[in-house]
Amino acid sequence: MNYQIELRHLLYFKTVAEELHFRRAAERLFIAQPGLSRQIKQLEDYYQTKLFVRDKRNVELTETGVYLKKEVDLIFNQLSNIKGHIEKISEGKISSLKLGFIGSAVQAILPQLLVELKQKQPLIDITLNELSNEIQLDLLNKQELDFGFVRINETPMGLKSIPILTEHFSLVVPKNRFNKIKGKINLKDFSKESFILFSKEYSNSYYELVMSIFEDHGFNPHVTLRTVNALSIFNLVSQGLGVAIVPSSLKKGYHTHVDFLELNHLAQRTTLSLIWNKKNRNPGIPLMLEIVGNLNSKV
């Protein structure tokens, strides 16, 4: 073989893998279709395997093609990240950070963390996205997100995490509807109520944890509505459409017409964790971890 694989070969492969159509891929790349076919053939010769199965109507990835597509996506995403970090550094900024979070992180630590980051690095660029746990984990694996604030039982392989806050739950009820209740809440007294819960898309492990609360009290809840948004839950409860169970930190920062009844006598606790990809070389990551460590030590 008298040639070496270059970045353009991977770009051509990536484009064909996305389009699954050689003519459209060639048009996107502004090259002739025969030339594109030759480049793909060189790549297949280099790896000594077929990457595509082609006939007159269809183009499909082979098993090795599917694997290569995932790896190539990571390569180009990393190249994009490098370009972005170099641009920020050349502007005198340490980096940019893309943060994912679930709603309760806003109440728990995120505002204070952002203040600390901006004090230490005033020019750092920060992008915030409120996302479900599952989406955050997917983006972290692809290195399309630098950090996530999630509620999970176990840290997936390839990722690292540190606990931020472990807390109990609260029962959310319409304002003044249950204000005569004094002392410890018996959740079984609410077994006839409709429940509004965070859905499995918010976090499957968190959902199972909440369901274990009902199991301990000997009833299956009548779950009428599910959502991934805390404010939606509170608004629905305030309209008398049901009651909810949420992490207690969510009672801070929301001005809604509901009451929070503490369930701190329950055994179940939920932990908000900071999670990141250990392969991520974003230069802003050590700073973020240092600040989080300092904040944790003050708690």
Question: Could you characterize the architecture of this molecule?
Answer:
By secondary structure, the chain is α/β, with parallel strands linked by helices. The protein folds into three domains: 7-82, Winged helix-like DNA-binding domain superfamily/Winged helix DNA-binding domain (Arc Repressor Mutant, subunit A, Orthogonal Bundle); 93-158 and 274-298, D-Maltodextrin-Binding Protein, domain 2 (3-Layer(aba) Sandwich), CATH 3.40.190; 169-268, D-Maltodextrin-Binding Protein, domain 2, CATH 3.40.190.10. The chain has ten helices and twelve strands. It has a five-stranded mixed sheet with strand order 4-3-5-12-6, with helices on both faces. Helix 8 (204-216) links the parallel strand 8 (194-198) and strand 9. Helix 1 crosses helix 3 and helix 6 (110-120) crosses helix 10 (285-298). It is elongated and about 80 Å long. The N and C termini lie far apart (62 Å). The model has no long low-confidence stretch (mean pLDDT 88).
